[in-house]
Design brief:
Largest sheet of chain A: 6 strands, mixed
CATH class of the domain at 86-112 and 214-392 in chain A: Alpha Beta
CATH architecture of the domain at 86-112 and 214-392 in chain A: 3-Layer(aba) Sandwich
Distance between the termini of chain A: 63 Å
Strand content of chain A: 15-25%
Oligomer: homodimer
Number of helices of chain A: 16
Radius of gyration of chain A: 21 Å
Amino acid sequence: MKNVLGLRCVECSKEVSPEAGTYTCPSCGSKGGIMDVVYDYQEINRLTTRKQVTNSRDYSMFRYLSFLPIYPESARPHLRVGWSPLYKPQGLGKSLGMSNLYIKDDGQNPTSSLKDRASIIAVIKAVEEKAPTVACSSTGNAASSLAGNAAAMGLKSVIFVPSRAPQGKIAQLMIFGATVISVQGSYEDTFRLSAEAIEHFGWYNRNAAINPYLVEGKKTVALEIAEQLNWDVPDWVILSVGDGCTIAGVWKGFRDLYLAGWIDRLPKIAGVQSTGCSPLVDAFLEDRPWRPKEENTIADSIAVGVPRNPDKALNAVRESGGTMVAVTDEAILEAMRQLGRTSGIFGEPAGVTGTAGLKALVEKGVIGADEKVVSIVTGNGLKDVLNAIKAVGEPLKVEPSLQELLMKMEVVE
Amino acid sequence: MKNVLGLRCVECSKEVSPEAGTYTCPSCGSKGGIMDVVYDYQEINRLTTRKQVTNSRDYSMFRYLSFLPIYPESARPHLRVGWSPLYKPQGLGKSLGMSNLYIKDDGQNPTSSLKDRASIIAVIKAVEEKAPTVACSSTGNAASSLAGNAAAMGLKSVIFVPSRAPQGKIAQLMIFGATVISVQGSYEDTFRLSAEAIEHFGWYNRNAAINPYLVEGKKTVALEIAEQLNWDVPDWVILSVGDGCTIAGVWKGFRDLYLAGWIDRLPKIAGVQSTGCSPLVDAFLEDRPWRPKEENTIADSIAVGVPRNPDKALNAVRESGGTMVAVTDEAILEAMRQLGRTSGIFGEPAGVTGTAGLKALVEKGVIGADEKVVSIVTGNGLKDVLNAIKAVGEPLKVEPSLQELLMKMEVVE
């Protein structure tokens, strides 16, 4: 990894070598500061130019290999992760009164969420470090993506999920052959138990807030957005926030591109949570440290009362000059319908929370109607069908008779 | 459409102009023979060379525009349909004892099934013909893909589904704003009612067996397979069969490439059904006309007792020198597990039925261990979570305590 200088603690700025084998800061005591990967941007530019990347025929996140903390020769799973489509859906733009709106549909990934970007890095690092088993705790998407990528890589996976995780996500990861532990408690309980078990068994740790490499996978969504817009940076990038790792990854991606000289400005980052679980939005809006909150939202992927990466998330928003907003679950369901009906995009509740927040920020005048905005849809709606049904209701039931159909359709119209 | 010479009846070979506005043969009486699109292969080669396609940066099925029956200037929805990944999963190959096995994962499409390839053509043709509403009957995937593509195109959609369609598919298409009619009967009842209603209301007909343009969209999966293998045609392509339109499309794709001189041989096509609903396999194996069958299989997308395109399907298999096989629902569930565990690919039951059939044909010695085989996974497993749960069972439930976890894991191991 010629492109990586080291890992730097986000709390105390201590730097360690990536070969040191530690994932948390050795100087920050028992708390263990979160680390950031530090790159040699000159080396990145020696390895690949922006033009070379633009001409690359590798239509996956690995077109950005020079920006990733893996050895170029490391084994990789066959799954095609990344290079998800960036759409400019006219219908949605119109319905929100926006002229320059893009949707990055990251539900179009092998296991149907953005988390594949982190999990594929996790399994590559696990094999680099000769670990036979990978593990994580997750509200669902990180889990199924880890299980899927581990299966493709020939690794075992152990997954801790909170009891509320939707059945689609559970089924998906069991299909991938994971050992699944359903923890009868909150996400906080789940995270804690996974950390204890990972330490006990010596499994490779894919918990995004602890493992500094995962945010590097997530950042590729930002690299793609920049390239898909011909390196012309949007005014805003807006997405949902749970643990805080994904928004941190998005910001890291744009910062890395900027520091490497591939883009000439940075976007503002907007983070959105549900009013049912908004510890980071509250902290941001009230300009105070975050405090734990209850987890009362249908958007299970971001129902995180005790976020694991609050500082990186809040830094991303603040440094970018961005903002945060909370939206109700009803607004989230409405965003599901709106994206579906106007654009043919089916997002899960947490996946469309960014779009719901966008609507709120446009109505408040924080985001202008003509600004160039990218809203990231982070997961596919098929992952959580029960909430989709909540959003839309039931179909019209008829006996196989045209007469009955005509009668019932008249009643409906 | 300079590349299209006309539509030819598959029964009586009568040809009509594509401008004639008829979708079934005017000479075949009330039955209405199914039509095939006839191309001018010289014109195709004048429009694009194989090398130009190979260098195209349009990573969707529209890289093959010269092989499609649409006007180049026609409006298209923004959704990225096609160019799904072709994997060579070592783990799966190993577990089946095969050295040269590829999986085409068509669950990686905007609405998570191969049917997007047909539906995007349907909405393009509907707009070409100035129809404001599109309609179809479907066991699910054609429905959700039509609804999604219609939403993206700004069209209304009316969808007829049999009452047994899984809730994931229903929710998906209601999210896309479709008017959904759940017909309390079989797929046959559903098809019949939709045909009556389509005629009554004058909606654009997306029923694949009637609309000759849809198979043209489906054939792009074959074009992609050829290109992704560097135009080196596989020995076998194997996939599930319901109505028969998809397998007909695959064969049409390879034939068109061959007739245009882009490939130098044709693959054998193997079609697979569930033993719970195998009218076409039975007809093929017993070399007799097909007869209606009950619809008793978990593979809902291919539970078609009265297939709409039996001739095209049987022709595809026979002309190619291929074969057909039926597999039990248990073998289908096992294929779901096998694909998931060894490859990180999650297919729905009908989606993996081809892979289950491959296993059977390898065991029978019909397909050799070193032959180059492409198995098409036609839909994403998230569409039918209840059957996935059947395949895998429930997770391990534990209270948030390491001690309990250690105890329960010991019991499991």
